[in-house]
């Protein structure tokens, strides 16, 4: 078709391509930083994949060389745990007592006198929140927003004079501070 030699035709094609690229240069330059960052991230992720694949192959090869521990030192099983004391020492030694006759005292029902736990036969609820003495910390947290500062102070006084549970005292004290700051 063309009588011009091949190298001349290639050179002409190169010139046309250069002119086309020069026209597209403003659009290409605008996207260059995004393209460069994208390429760098692709290379970085591929390098991480290659390193991880090598580590997995290395683990497989090295696992065959190490002896397997029968029971690893960090493993703890139920059989290894110490037994907990019963509610009353010697209660299991008495056949006249069954599980229902054992008395378990929860911390919530154990008032403190001079810093020591003591038994109480009757625990009354504070007027500010009936049933407070049997609430969990999560249940109390849900109820605190509806109480006034005076009611929270009443709960704090009740808590300090009865069970004295540190998480409850802290939560009630923090709520009083929040309400006073508002």
Defining traits:
single chain; 182 residues; mainly alpha; two-stranded antiparallel sheet
Straight-line distance between termini: 91 Å
The gross shape turns out to be elongated
Quote the beta fraction: under 5%
Coarse structural class: mainly alpha
User: Helical segment tally?
Assistant: 4
Number of domains: 2
Helix and strand succession?
A: HEEHHH
Q: What characterizes the major β-sheet?
A: 2 strands, antiparallel
Residue stretches low in confidence (pLDDT < 50, at least 5 long) are: 99-121
Number of strands: 2
Question: Strands across the major sheet, in which order?
Answer: 1-2
What is the average per-residue confidence, as pLDDT, rounded to a whole number? 78
Helix content: 40-55%
The gyration radius over C-alpha positions equals 38 Å
What does this structure look like?
This protein has a two-stranded antiparallel ribbon with strand order 1-2. The chain has helices at 6-63, 137-144, 149-161, 166-181, and strands at 112-113, 116-117. The chain is mainly α and 182 residues long. 52% of the residues lie in helices and 2% in strands. The model is unreliable at 99-121 (pLDDT under 50). It is elongated and about 110 Å long. Helix 3 (149-161) runs antiparallel to helix 4. It folds into 2 domains: 1-64; 109-181, no CATH class. Strand 1 and strand 2 form a beta hairpin.
Helix and strand arrangement:
Blueprint (H helix, E strand, L loop, with lengths): L5 H58 L48 E2 L2 E2 L19 H8 L4 H13 L4 H16 L1
Antiparallel strand pairs: 1-2
Helix pairs in contact: 2-4, 3-4
Organism: Actinomycetospora rhizophila
Protein name: Lipid droplet-associated protein
